[in-house]
């Protein structure tokens, strides 16, 4: 069941991904990205090879952390909804850090260790990406400094403790370790920080230190192709049950967990003419897929990364503080943006109230408390199952449960006690 290759969608897209550009319009050369990223991931970023071998060392760590993750049929949820549809979910919450993010963290850490990188930097908001990279760098013996948005550092200590337990150095951002950080601290010694500032600090740190590079957890093509291990496993697991999905569902922040599950099935539709639908869920208050413009924009809110052509709300968009922290991103992966433009992926949006209600139903029927991000996928799966009931049609639904919510219980608490705020 464990795949030996990742799937790269670049050669199969209905149109090529527009090149990355600098603010002056010039095209970014791959070599220029090597200042920040591992050479091999830069090669993968632009590769036109459909299948990319998973190095044995990475594959072994996938097995060690519990891959293949389970494919589970949500029978009690089906019964609760009285739907003729079959609902399957791929459960990424069983990894040690509780989400899919470790799939790319392990690959990136491996390539860095092979290329002699001694230290990595990254940013983290609520801490999911930081936790995954902390584990991966521990396994591949690389030092890591995580710039964690100060307000999260202070208010959400648990993921910081996870990262520190794995041996990462976690500093609240803005920090005194970078010029950018110092500038913000001078303005306000208690600055709450932002993801944009944390990114700027992590990048500055990487480019000003010997043997130090930077690692990103979503949006870019190399990240997405590492995540296809989810969909490739799911396809085999469904095959073993004699099933094939009619609809593939997931939640989208930058797009990596959804693309990871969906792209191997998108391949079947694009190349094999399979009739399969794709539904991607996002928060009503951060509608980058459904309301974002398709244009060039920075990948980060600080305006430091190259510009990508994607659906974007603008890199200066300030997302409301919804509990699904991983979905508070202004853009969408360029490959996913193209699939949306071609009507292959259908975006849907839900409010916080709706997604937590879906999460509560899922917890009561299936026993797993999903991450608030994943609740968006649960909600979309429930909607599809109810549509199947209305239409009196059997239907096979597959969705990605990208993570568990055991470190995000504050959101459930606010939902259960009517404190979510109605506008979100
Ligand atoms: C980070 C995260 C997401 C959103 O990121 P994508 O790149 O869109 O997958 C979704 N679910 C969980 C559990 C996350 O940690």
TrEMBL record:
Keywords assigned by UniProt, alphabetized: Amino-acid biosynthesis, Aromatic amino acid biosynthesis, Lyase, Pyridoxal phosphate, Tryptophan biosynthesis
Residue positions where N6-(pyridoxal phosphate)lysine is found in the record: 101
Annotated coiled-coil segments of the chain: none
GO cellular component, one term: cytoplasm
Domain annotation Tryptophan synthase beta chain-like PALP: ranges: 66-403
Molecular-function GO terms, alphabetical: L-serine hydro-lyase (adding indole, L-tryptophan-forming) activity; pyridoxal phosphate binding; tryptophan synthase activity
Cofactor or coenzyme needed: pyridoxal 5'-phosphate
Known EC number: 4.2.1.20
HAMAP family referenced in this protein's UniProt entry, alphabetically: Trp_synth_beta
Summary of subunit composition and partner proteins: Tetramer of two alpha and two beta chains.
Name of the protein in question: Tryptophan synthase beta chain
Organism per entry: Ignicoccus pacificus DSM 13166
Taxonomy of the source species: Archaea, Thermoproteota, Thermoprotei, Desulfurococcales, Desulfurococcaceae
Gene: trpB
């Amino acid at each position: 069941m464990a795949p030996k290759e990742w799937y790269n969608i670049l050669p199969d897209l209905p149109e090529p991904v527009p090149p990355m550009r600098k603010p002056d319009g010039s095209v970014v050369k791959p070599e220029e990205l090597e200042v920040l990223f591992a050479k091999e991931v830069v090669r993968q970023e632009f590769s036109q090879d459909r299948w990319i071998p998973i190095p044995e060392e990475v594959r072994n760590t996938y097995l060690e952390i519990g891959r293949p993750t389970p494919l589970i049929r949500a029978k009690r949820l089906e019964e609760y909804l009285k739907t003729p549809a079959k609902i399957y979910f791929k459960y990424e919450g069983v990894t040690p850090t509780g989400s899919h993010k470790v799939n790319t963290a392990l690959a990136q850490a491996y390539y860095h260790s092979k290329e002699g990188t001694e230290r990595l930097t990254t940013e983290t908001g609520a801490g999911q990406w930081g936790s995954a990279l902390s584990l991966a760098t521990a396994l591949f013996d690389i030092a890591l400094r995580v710039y964690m948005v100060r307000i999260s550092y202070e208010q959400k200590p648990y993921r910081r403790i996870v990262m520190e337990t794995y041996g990462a150095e976690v500093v609240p951002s803005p920090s005194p370790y970078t010029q950018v950080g110092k500038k913000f601290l001078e303005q306000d010694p208690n600055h709450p920080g932002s993801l944009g500032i944390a990114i700027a600090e992590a990048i500055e740190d990487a480019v000003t230190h010997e043997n130090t590079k930077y690692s990103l957890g979503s949006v870019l093509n190399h990240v997405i192709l590492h995540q296809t291990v989810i969909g490739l496993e799911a396809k085999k697991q469904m095959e073993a049950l004699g099933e094939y999905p009619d609809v593939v569902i997931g939640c989208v922040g930058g797009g990596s967990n959804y693309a990871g599950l969906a792209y191997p099935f998108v391949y079947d539709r694009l190349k094999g003419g399979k009739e399969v639908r794709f539904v991607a869920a996002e928060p009503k208050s951060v509608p980058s897929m459904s309301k974002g413009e398709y244009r060039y924009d920075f990948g980060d809110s600080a305006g430091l990364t190259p510009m990508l052509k994607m659906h974007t709300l603008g890199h200066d968009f300030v997302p409301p503080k919804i509990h699904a922290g991983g979905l508070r991103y202004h853009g969408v992966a360029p490959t996913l943006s193209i699939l949306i433009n071609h009507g292959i992926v259908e975006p849907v949006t839900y409010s916080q109230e709706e997604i937590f209600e879906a999460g509560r139903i899922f917890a009561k029927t299936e026993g797993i408390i999903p991450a608030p991000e994943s609740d968006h996928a649960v909600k979309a799966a429930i909607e599809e199952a109810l549509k199947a009931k209305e239409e009196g049609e059997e239907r096979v639904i597959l969705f990605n449960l990208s993570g568990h919510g055991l470190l995000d219980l504050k959101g459930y608490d606010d939902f259960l006690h009517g404190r979510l705020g109605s506008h979100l």
